[in-house]
Write a structure and sequence with these properties.
single chain, Beta-Lactamase, 5-stranded antiparallel sheet, 26% strand
């Protein structure tokens, strides 16, 4: 349309008769004239920008027409097209959807003030629309506020998110679990003017999930208890039976046979305990930095003897050293369990492949470098249902007598306690692959090669034994006396301090249980080393649930894992005394 060429008086006379809101502005946007229709609205700024605008419930299109005088006519034309009618229908449908939605739908402006609050918001959170409109967003608990501000910044930055779980607060102070989905709200020119959020109350679902997981845990505990009872009862049956034979005036040969049988049965029970501790991540790890590749190479001969000549062992190791921090003995145990599992899957022979590599994975805190150990066999493989359960305790597909069902469970526990991850991939008749991820560590400091020394003579010492179990205390003290040591006995930490206080001479070593009534081994060791700074300390425990043991071993404290033999205990004491 060409520029209009009318005098200002004629033009205003013409526009005054116009029923649509209209105004004239100078080139510097100052207002020259507004007609009656616009004056009735009381605000000429609604025509400042061209485009759609809603005035008094009617949708208009604002256009700007340049006049020959240099002025601009701003005119609002009502939309009466089919598209506008469809838009009105769709807008009504959306409004109805928001009102009837079973989930909470709300809108916040850029200052985090509520500008929309549907009925479901009131039903779920307790605040009415009148309570919250124009007010700061009320749902965020104090401990979630930093996280919420981060989410809000993301949304008003132009990016929404879907189904994020978070706690939100009700008006009565109750916390509820929600899933939150958001999207930015944009103005007529594409700029973000606020954020919409959809919140679903999932509190009941979370409770049901917790009950399901608790039931699954109880089922696993029941299976675990049944497996333990079965295996321990077998071991105890042998021990009790041969103990009865020893009491029947047996011959020297029968005594020797009975003692050996008792020892073998006790060793099987001890191995079962070690596997349980590995699975439950309650064993004490003697962690240090070492090259995983070197450990794999040193284990090859042992693994080959373990799995037999009909299984070929191949290696594909990373060309450079791969340093990890873990307990080398437990990593060797892990290798043995995986190798035995692979051998049983290849009854007619096959190939066992050990490989290692370094890989980087992204985490919420940034990139992290891992060392991956892969153990792959060409055996029978497993279906998906079996593979999903292989790390469960006492779950096994092997025939009776071929395994305890704890080998892979202990692998899982060793890896998790070492800060790593383990998974399995398998297909029937296509073999099985176990992947172990361990955090990469710094190379160990070079240590001077130790010179081979002649065995030192046994040093006789005074040993204070603190142990609350009478039977364990008796056998420990008897074994130490047989080795030539002077022994002081105490039933717990308090008793040990009193015994030490009453003993006038030097006490060379404290041999103490960790968990005891009245005072445990950690507090006892602290108190006794203050009174006798030169005393040595050895902790003994059946699990690593005590912080003293975990931190102490990491700092180089001496430790003996229960159950232990008298010979192992005496050797450990000799090592500590000789420094």
């Amino acid at each position: 349309m060409p520029p209009m060429d009318l005098s200002l008086q004629d033009l205003t006379t013409l526009l005054e008769r116009c029923s649509t809101p209209t105004c004239l502005v100078n080139a510097d946007h100052t207002l020259v004239y507004e007609n009656a229709a616009l004056r009735a609205l009381g605000d000429a700024s609604i025509l400042a920008e061209p485009g759609p605008v809603r005035i008094g419930g009617t949708l208009y299109t604002v256009t700007h027409q340049q006049l020959s005088s240099g002025r601009t006519a701003r005119i609002a034309t009502p939309e009466t097209s089919a598209a506008s009618a469809e838009l009105e229908v769709r807008s009504g449908m959306l409004n109805a959807l928001v009102e009837a939605a079973p989930v909470a739908i709300l809108v916040l402006d850029l200052q985090m003030r509520v500008t929309m609050w549907n009925p479901a918001c009131e039903r779920i959170f307790g605040w009415t629309e009148a309570d919250v409109l124009g007010e700061p967003y009320p749902l965020v608990p104090a401990h979630e506020w930093d996280r919420f501000e981060s989410f809000f910044a993301t949304v008003v930055g132009g990016q929404g998110f879907t189904a994020v779980e978070a706690e939100r607060a009700r008006k009565d102070g109750q916390r509820i679990h929600t899933t939150i989905s958001t999207a930015p709200i944009r103005g007529g020119h594409g700029e973000v003017i606020g954020a919409m959020a959809i919140l679903e109350d999932i509190t009941e679902r979370k409770l049901l999930e917790a009950r399901y997981h608790q039931a699954a845990k109880l089922e696993a505990v029941g299976r675990l208890a049944g497996g333990i009872a079965h295996d321990f009862n077998n071991a105890l049956t042998v021990i009790l039976a041969y103990s009865d034979m020893l009491a029947l005036n047996a011959s020297p040969v029968e005594v020797n046979q009975s003692a050996n049988a008792i020892r073998r049965s006790a060793e099987r029970a001890a191995e079962l305990t070690r596997q349980l501790l590995a699975f439950s991540r309650r064993q004490v790890l003697q962690a240090r930095n070492f090259d995983l590749n070197e450990t794999l190479r040193e284990s090859l001969d042992m693994l080959q003897r373990l799995i037999g000549a009909d299984v070929e062992v191949e290696t594909k190791l990373h060309r450079a050293p791969l340093w990890v921090r873990a307990d080398p003995a437990q990593i060797e145990r892990l290798l043995m369990n995986l190798a035995v599992n692979a051998r049983d899957a290849m009854p007619d022979g096959g190939t066992l492949t050990l490989s290692s590599k370094r890989l980087t994975r992204q985490t919420p805190t940034g990139a992290r470098t891992w060392v991956q150990l892969t153990v792959e066999d060409t055996g029978e493989g497993m279906d998906a249902e079996t593979a999903a359960r292989v790390f469960e305790p006492f779950f096994t597909t092997k025939p009776v007598g071929k395994g305890t069902g704890l080998g892979l469970a202990s692998v899982y526990g060793i890896v998790r306690q070492s800060g790593g991850e383990v998974d399995v991939v398998s297909e029937l008749d296509r073999g099985t692959t176990f992947r172990v991820l361990l955090p990469e560590a710094k190379p160990a400091k070079d240590e001077a090669t130790e010179e081979v020394e002649e065995a030192l003579p046994v040093r006789r010492a005074t040993v204070l034994v603190a142990e609350d179990d009478a039977q364990v205390r008796m056998v420990v003290c008897q074994g130490l006396r047989m080795a030539g040591h002077t022994v002081l006995e105490a039933t717990d930490g308090i008793d040990a301090l009193e015994v030490a206080k009453a003993y006038p001479d030097t006490i060379d070593l404290l041999f103490t249980d960790v968990v005891m009534p009245r005072m445990g081994g950690g507090a006892l060791a602290t108190a006794l080393t203050e009174a006798r700074p030169t005393i040595n300390v050895i902790f003994a425990s059946g699990h690593a649930d005590d912080e003293v043991v975990r931190r102490g071993v990491e700092k180089g404290a001496h430790f003996v894992q229960k159950p232990f033999s008298v010979a192992a205990m005496v050797d450990k004491i000799q090592q500590v005394l000789e420094g």
